[in-house]
Design brief:
Strand content: 25-35%
Number of strands: 14
Structural class: alpha/beta
Distance between the termini: 6 Å
Helix content: 25-40%
Order of helices and strands: EHHEHEEEHHEEHEHEHEEHEHEHEH
CATH architecture of the largest domain: 3-Layer(aba) Sandwich
Largest sheet: 6 strands, mixed
Strand order of the largest sheet: 8-7-6-9-11-10
Length: about 280
């Protein structure tokens, strides 16, 4: 099965444990599988920089799917290989539809192939303040004066963090617009909810299909736990939810495996390969 099957795993809540790390067992197991010729990569809403803080020990040879499909990157070097950004008309519409953005979120923008995250110099929601505080020493976090400054360079991703009740009306405004992909879900590790917007056509599913075609794989097997994993479940030959996944994800899966804290993904692939 190794040479014809592409395995793709979500990160947060799936390959990663609840302590926001990938266990030594999973790293050793995945690297061993890759050395044996197994095709493995991951798909995440994280940026490549954020993902590599956790995945840097994985010797992944294939492009990794980041920012929910808007960026393909090299996990070993951290270099972005393919970046999709918003069209100018979509940026104008986002600014019109989300006047709350300066207080609620940040924008991932690209200067060349380097990403910065711009946030406005104003009062913020508690969730956004916590996020900014966590990354206060990260040079990629750039404070700008206002909404206009948030959309610098080539904007490619919008993130908002607040309570469910606070963000629900915002999501109602943006969810059906044809210019972008939108997602509204609870954070894996905290109580806040997130709205994430990325350019039209950028989903984990579409990038997986792109890799499948480019590399000539016959089958795709995926693993996930959250709502943004459902599109890749729908295009996979087999899809597996970890036992800590949302009920909607479990219902859409081929089957449910162990939890993220039990190294379920790595152990499943080993079992699958031995019995193929």
């Amino acid at each position: 099965m190794s040479n014809k099957t592409l395995y793709v795993s979500d990160l947060d809540g799936t390959l990663m444990r609840s302590d926001i790390k990938i266990s030594d067992h999973t790293v050793k197991t995945i690297n061993g599988l890759i050395d044996q010729g197994v095709a493995f990569t991951y798909a995440t809403a994280r940026s490549i920089d954020s993902a590599r803080e956790i995945t840097q020990d994985l010797k992944i040879k294939l492009p990794v799917i980041t920012r929910n499909g808007s960026v393909l990157a090299d996990n070993i070097t951290g270099k972005s290989m393919e970046i999709t950004v918003f069209k100018e008309e979509d940026i104008r519409m986002i600014r019109k539809l989300i006047p709350e953005l300066p207080s609620h979120g940040f924008v991932s923008c690209y200067i060349g192939d380097k990403m910065i995250k711009t946030y406005a110099d104003t009062e913020h929601t508690e969730g956004l303040d916590d996020y900014i505080g966590f990354y206060k020493d990260d040079p990629r976090m750039v404070k700008v004066p206002d909404m206009e400054g948030m959309f610098t360079g080539r904007p490619g991703y919008v993130t908002m963090i607040s309570s469910k009740e606070d963000l629900e009306p915002v999501y109602e405004r943006v969810k059906d617009h044809d210019g972008w992909e939108s997602l509204f879900q609870k954070d894996t590790y905290r109580d806040e909810y997130w709205i994430e917007l990325c350019p039209k056509g950028c989903t984990k599913a579409k990038k997986i299909l792109q890799l499948k075609e480019e590399y000539g794989f016959d089958r795709v097997i995926v693993f996930g736990d959250s709502l943004n994993d459902l599109p890749m479940f729908s295009i996979a030959d087999e899809s597996y939810a970890v036992s800590n996944a949302l009920d909607e994800v479990k219902a859409a899966a081929t089957s449910v495996i162990g939890s993220n804290n039990e190294d379920a993904v790595a152990n499943f692939i080993v079992h699958k390969e031995k019995n193929s």
